[in-house]
Amino acid sequence: MGFKEKKDEYLKQIEEKLNRIFNKYTISAIFFIVVILLNLPKSSTTTYNLQIGDIAPKTIRATVNMLVEDKEATKHRIEEAMNNVPPVFDYNSQLFSSTVSLLKKALFSINKDNPETSEKAFFTMLKIKPNPSLYKRIIRFNPQDIFSPAKDALESLQNYYIVNSVRSLYKFSPDKIMIRDIKNPKEEQLLNKDDVIDVTRAKIIAYNRLRDTVDNVILRNTIWDLISQLISPNLTFNSLATQQKKEEAAKKVNKVFFKISKGEIIVRSGDVITKADYLKLNALNSLTQKQNTYVKFIANMLIFIIISIVLFKVYETTKAKKNKWITITKTLAIVETLIIIQLLIFKLFNYLSNVISISNVDISQSAILLGMPFAVASMITAIMIDFELAFLVSILFGITSWLSTTPEIASYIGIYVFLGNVIGIFGIKKEKTRTGVIKAGLYISLTNIVFITLLYLLRNNDITKATLVDFSFGIGSGILSSIIVSGLLPVFEFVFNVTTDIKLLELGNLNNPLLKELAIKAPGTYHHSIVVSSLAEAAASEIGANPLIVKVGSYYHDIGKIKKPMYFIENQTDGKNPHDKLKPSISALIIKNHVKYGVEIAKKHRLGNYIIDIIEQHHGTSLIKYFYNKAKEQGLNPKEEDFRYPGPKPQTKEAGIVMIADEVEAASKTLSNPTVAHLREFVRDITNKIFLDGQLDECELTLKDLNKIIDSFVKVLVGIFHHRIEYPEEGQKRDESNDNKQN
Predict the structure, then answer these.
(1) Least confident span in 174-183, 343-352, 396-405, 540-549
(2) Assigned CATH for 12-40+290-498
(3) Which 3-state string (H, E, C) describes 247-293?
(4) CATH architecture of 502-742
(5) pTM for the structure as a whole
(6) Is 643 or 743 the better-scoring residue by pLDDT?
């Protein structure tokens, strides 16, 4: 065994050990540990137990930007707001009209024939203290003589606001009081204190009115002794409603804050601690009290881990097992690395939002978060793996952004991030090119603008309030996402050795240096590969395989022939065949080695698993019949396994298509003047031989697929052989006339 073989074997052993160590469970464990460390709450272990009047032992600086509440100033504001709330009084606008009605009923119900019972009923009805002397005077007069002046005196108070004591009003600081009618409490009005009178003043007004209307002193005194007991306040203080008003006013008070900037000196060494210093030190101390923060952190991490596991299990059971190009371990490594990068971007923009929102009042915290490039992970996942997994990543980041932001903006930022991610991956699905990445970013920007507009409308805000800053950050989010994706994608392609559709398009450029080398060193093989790509691409499109993989894979499937191009008949232009001087077994080994060399070249140029698998599998374990039969003819008693390719057999539809296309193109060079029917039979015969040899047993091609492949190959071959194809009758006549002309 040579040095190169030993080196390859050693590297293979190392790779196998690493694969055993870094399985999907190890990678997942590392991922969750990194996520936890990234999100671990940071707190200072230093506390400052200093009181007002103490001497600062050292210079203390702020470690973060923060707003500190001045609780005493806030309390003062609240007290001031509560003291300025006018007291609430219930107003009985119908009090005196009700009293007049009650008096009329009482006076006209007096029964002079039964004075004792009538007296008791009279005072009970009026709800005043019984007075036998007064009653005796009342029954001397006609009820109407008493009622009319009494009514007039009481109704003179109808338009006055009366309380028990005006002095009690002035214990409230506002100059006004709030009154509301007891029949309609929702209607409130403010009233100057000077417009309110007390009961004593009301009685004077009523007495003066009575004096002006009744000349009979005895009658007047009798009426006055009666109605003076009926005059009461029509305004009653409502302590419950007043307290509610005060509480509402307290809730509307804005707290008083002062700003502390990171690095700002709170107190210098040797300074006396002032009240303001004390408040700032307490704010710094509060950063160390993280019990609630840790509880929230643990809850968030558990939610994140559970959702991550569930989403990936959903993907693994529904999709991942069908993906033979990328292992589940590599898929995990790619996606989890992307998630960590995206989380770092989230943390960066959260930090920027906190810093900038404090230092610049014109840019809000939410505006910074709107500009976050949140679609990086999902877009790269869509390009490198598939759209189903990218969609699940979008769900994960929608929930993550909701958990990691403040409650004020969490309600909509999760939807904003999820929708942007979905639009981004659908934009990539539409066009998986470098230009398509930029277009996807613009789609995200447009979606962001629409979302921000709808958000303002749903909040019943005027759309003019949606500042240019919000829209600018929304647009920047999509553009920045596409820029980061364009920069990171080549790095991920290189590190994880994954060939994306974008990389395939670049490899499919016929100006690629490797293809140019093939065209120069092995022109026949180059032409053969171009024709194979046409056949394979048409077939892949027909059966739903990936046309791009088979097209580019066909370009490189025989790249190993660069090593010894003249040992392959398509490159022999001078009629000399080196195999004529070699044993059949040596010739077969050289032919088989073009697969081995092809894999080595593909790995050296990092063409990716798609291309490597097609190179390795495009001959499967098929028999090199020519040299096998030659060995038999020479009586060498050859072993069939020595003349078979090492394999493996095609594992995917794409590799199977390239195998059939390779055989068909190579064999088609022997055809002369074929008909369409002949071409169909020719292709079917080759396909059947490959199928019966068991070369297609391990790929997913069905008999229905094979029939479609045959039809598509025939269509392409008709185009290639169109000038030599014979058609029934008419075609035959054309050939005869051409022969006559040539003769």
Answers:
(1) 396-405
(2) 1.10.1760.20
(3) HHHHHCCCCCEEEECCCCEEECCCCECCHHHHHHHHHHHHCCCCHHH
(4) Orthogonal Bundle (1.10)
(5) 0.60
(6) 643
